[in-house]
Amino acid sequence: MELSECVQRGLQALAEPSSVDQSGFQVLVDATFRSLLSAHADSGVLDLPELKQVDQILLKQIHTATTTFILEVVKHNSDKSTISSCLEDLSFSTDRIEIFYTAYQVHVKLRYDQSPFFFSFCSIGRQAPHINDVSWRLEYHMKNAHVNKVNEPCYLISLNTEKEGSSEDVSFTCTVEQLQDLVGKLKDAAKSVERAGQI
Question: Start and end of every COMM domain (predicted)?
Answer without folding.
Answer: 130-197
